Amino acid sequence: MEVEDDGRIRTGTVWTATAHAITAVIGSGVLSLTWSVAQMGWILGPLVLIGFAFITYYSATLLSDCYRSPDPVRGRRNHTYMEVVRACLGARDVLVCGIAQYAMLWGTMVGYTITAATSMMSVKRSNCYREKGENAKCGVSGNLYLIIFGVIEIILSQFPNLEKVTFLSVIAAAMSFTYSFIGLYLCIVKVISHHEIRGSLTGIKIEMNNVSASTKVWNAFQALGNIAFAYTYAMLLIEIQDTLKSPPPENKTMKKATMYGIGITTLFYVSLGCVGYAAFGNDAPGNVLTGFREPFWLVDIANFAVIIHLSGAYQVYAQPIFAFYEKWLALRWPTTGFLHTVYTLRLPLSKARSIQFTLSKLLLRTVFVVFTTLVAMMLPFFNSVVGLLGSIAFWPLTIYLPVRMYMAQAKIKGGSRKWMVLQSLSMFGLVVSLVAAVGSVADIAEHLKHAKLFKIEF
């Protein structure tokens, strides 16, 4: 292992970066795509899915060139997204970036907690129907499952950093393929069983589905946010790129990993979104897996795969947050034992292996996960939360900042053809984010009228 120019040893390759990218991109968002396509129909639905893939890939290539500055190959490393913003744009934009990035990371953790608990509840309900019959009352309360998932993440959060959870990303990526394939298979079987392709060119019809014109508009806006969330991973790209060894140059490796990750993701998204819409039509559920009861064993496997995937993906989003505040605390109080004294715990049945930790990591990470779980208990609105997260992060993190940083580093002249293209892309992203936020907030407000605090049922 060679020491890099900043004194660190990196072991990441295009394949580990691809695993991280797939884990970050294919998450709970894929489960809402069938519903999202249903809001827009056969014309706009597939076009939006493919369009967001191209936008995400292009903006990611711009961002990967900013990992080193001022030269993308030989410049100084920027280890985090915020460091890139500081190097390319200055300190004024760092605050905006930090708020957007870490709000998105944390919000995704909340969304993953909700989704994992929903999958656990689905398994419980499935077993109830299998034991008591299809007509049995099998309502399930979700607080216990939210707590179980939180306990799992408290344990996994003790891994020291993102590079040390690569194996979790590999497992999580495999699980994302598993439940995506199962969901796709179940949708194909459903299409074959009713001998028709359901849905319409313009999506849910107002007069036939008992929805008002305003509700259809809000849902369509929210669907844009869901799709944006499903593709977004710019807030993790720099942190993933910082795990890569060189040569070859990190930006070239990251562009390949992004191409593979986005390409594979898009194939799954378009397939599942469109085949799911063909299966359910305008009655598509918010979480596609909740639309199936049989075969019980296969649906259970899919839900278990979701749980395992989100357990690993949660850490991919959590570790950058841990690293940020732990670095800040260490610099603020450089001599405090609570932050710096390392304790070693020998593992039973193994003389060679041990766990090292500080009290700050043990306690603060635990408190952070507990707080995230409590928020998930208060906001159990899967589609609404997903759409709002996508709308918050899509424009500033995926388009605006990468475009501005690339133009600053590449010295793109104002008024040039490339400058106009990039500015148009940024304006488009802003419009998408605004309408998606409006739709998601409207839906959350509607849910809050009927919701009970700390009570999630399925």
What do you see in this structure?
The chain has 458 residues and is an all-alpha fold. The protein has a single domain (14-326, 379-448), classed as Up-down Bundle (Amino acid/polyamine transporter I), CATH 1.20.1740. Helix content is 69%, strand content 3%. It is built from 14 helices and four strands. The chain has a two-stranded antiparallel sheet. It has a two-stranded antiparallel sheet with strand order 3-4. Strand 3 and strand 4 form a beta hairpin. The longest helix has 41 residues, at 92-132. The model has no long low-confidence stretch (mean pLDDT 79).
- Our estimate of the beta-strand percent is under 5%
Look at the structure and give the mean pLDDT. Answer: 79
Shape: globular
Low-confidence runs of at least 5 consecutive residues: none
Helix-strand makeup class = mainly alpha
**Terminus-to-terminus distance:** 50 Å
Q: What is the gyration radius calculated from CA atoms? A: 22 Å
Percentage of residues in helical conformation: 55-70%
